[in-house]
Specification:
Elements: E1 2-7, H1 28-34, E2 40-46, E3 67-70, E4 73-76, E5 100-106, H2 129-135, E6 140-146, H3 151-161, E7 165-174, H4 178-190, E8 194-196
Bound molecules: pyrazine-2-carboxylic acid and zinc ion.
């Protein structure tokens, strides 16, 4: 059985949003078409409290995209985004959501960021996604969504670690930055993640 994991296709990551991924909107029709090809479709949703410490605004004299140490973990500081209950945290209304069987929210603990759909960045808390997929006999996980170099990357990395055959759909994701994207691709290749385009699915 195979699952499509749709990562964080939320208004704040789309053009006009507070942490817009360049051309992020272009993947939505591809993600919509892909959904019919899977046994299971699951989505993740970045879901931060307003006092989240990944927000530059919650630190004195820090700007978005500065890098700090946060309780021992390297943390990029972001503009406020995906605040629980806000319009920016909603999925794009262009995203087909009827087939989504479950939504895993992440990033609720103000002290730790959570890029992966499986675990927080310190690997201390589990969202339950892995057990959910295993309970449905999923062996292959295909990742897509936003952003290619952060949440899609970390989700793919944990999917492999959790023992799923993992596929990264290159034309169904967009990156925040070219540099972090190239590094992410290199790491995923070394971990045996398979790169695939939507037309080959
Ligand atoms: C993301 C930065 C901060 C993502 C989430 O969805 O890739 N990036 N929070
Ligand atoms: Zn976030």
């Amino acid at each position: 059985m195979r699952a499509l994991l749709i990562v964080d296709i939320q208004n704040d990551f789309l053009p006009g949003g507070s942490l817009a991924v360049p051309k992020g909107d272009e993947i939505i029709p591809i993600v919509n078409d892909l959904q019919t090809k899977f046994d299971l479709v699951v989505a993740t949703q970045d879901w931060h409290p307003q006092n989240h410490l990944s927000f530059a605004s919650n630190h004195l004299e820090q700007q978005p995209f500065n890098i700090i140490d946060l309780f021992g973990l390297t943390q990029v500081l972001w503009p406020d985004h995906c605040v629980q209950g806000s319009e920016g945290a909603e999925f794009s209304k262009e995203l087909e959501s009827n087939n989504i069987s479950a939504i895993f929210r992440k990033g609720m603990d103000p002290k730790v960021d959570s890029y992966s759909g499986f675990f927080d960045n310190g690997h201390k808390n589990n969202t339950g996604l892995s057990a959910y997929l295993k309970g449905k006999n999923i062996k292959e996980v295909y990742v897509c969504g936003l952003a290619a170099d952060y949440c899609v990357y970390y989700t793919a990395k944990d999917a492999i670690k959790e023992g799923f055959r993992t596929f990264y759909i290159t034309d169904a994701t967009k990156a925040i930055s070219d540099n972090t994207y190239s590094e992410a691709i290199e790491t995923l290749k070394s971990l045996n993640v398979t790169f695939i385009t939507s037309k080959n699915i």
